[in-house]
Amino acid sequence: MSRGNVAYTLGFYSAISAFVLSILYDIAQLMNLPGKVLSAWDLVFVTLPSLMLSFAVVVMVVCVHHISSQEKKVWSHIGIVFATLYTSLVSIAYIVALLIVVPNMMVGDYASVAYLDPLNRESFLQPVDALGYGFLSLSFLFAAQIFSGKKLEKWVRISFLAHGLLAPFIVASYLNPDLIYIGALWIITFPLSTMLLAMLFRKKLSETT
Asked: Using one digit for the tens of pLDDT, what is the confidence trace for 1-42?
């Protein structure tokens, strides 16, 4: 299998994984009031797919880098850096939630670990989580620059740009909670971006076989 085929194949599966995991995350979030977790299982259903999503994103963006033209690789390389920062921050927040917060919630001791709950506005991990998702949007904003073709590639570029422009609203929502209603467009722009990217990888792969 050629290097290009490997990038297309891994890109397709990582983009599909990111799409499915983002839908699971969206469903879990929509089932809960903003900023509140109703039970330990609610926290699991929100953070577990989010943790897995962060790993899929890094693989996906690396594959985007490998299909970019030489003169545009600087953009996708910057995208990798921001995607890595995103994964680093949110994986810390979600591992803490799953391994420390959830077990304490299950025995009725949430008060002692509330400051470690990334969905709790009083927790120091919430702005860390918000910053991580801001980096994710910036990753898409830079990676969008490599897509310049027509039709499907054009739509991938537009969807990546749309998601990238949410970065300031996502980060600033910690200071102004009303901005979360703009940042919440994430539940549309991210699944759309990853679905279109998966379609593009699939198309590129079929053209080489």
From this structure: 555 589 999 999 999 999 999 999 988 888 775 555 568 898
Q: Record the tokens describing residue 63, joined without a space.
A: 């594959």
Distance, first Cα to last Cα, the chain: 10
Decide: pTM greater than 0.85: yes
Q: Which residues contact 80 (CB under 8 A, 6 or more apart)?
A: 58, 61, 62, 65, 139
pLDDT at site 147: 94
Give buried/exposed letters for 19-54 (b at 16+ CB in 10 A, else e): bbbbbbbbebbeebeeeebeebebbbbbbbbbbbbb
Helix pair 125-143, 186-208: axis angle to 10 deg = 40
Alpha-carbon distances, residue 141 vs 80, 158, 178, 209 (angstroms): 11, 10, 23, 31
Distance between CA 47 and CA 208 in Å, rounded? 37
The domain containing residue 36 runs over which residues?
A: 3-208
Backbone angles phi, psi at 36, to 5 degrees: -130, 145
Tally of domains in the chain: 1
Instruction: Classify the phi-psi angles of 149: left when phi > 0, otherwise alpha if psi is within -120 to 50, otherwise beta.
Output: beta
Give start and end residues of each alpha helix (H) in the chain. Answer: 3-30, 40-67, 73-96, 102-106, 125-143, 152-164, 167-172, 180-183, 186-208
183 Cβ contact list (under 8 Å, min separation 6):
133, 166, 169, 170, 173
Condensed to tens digits (0 to 9), the pLDDT of residues 38-66 reads: 688 989 999 999 999 999 999 999 999 99
**Is residue 133 within 8 Å of 90, Cβ to Cβ?**
yes
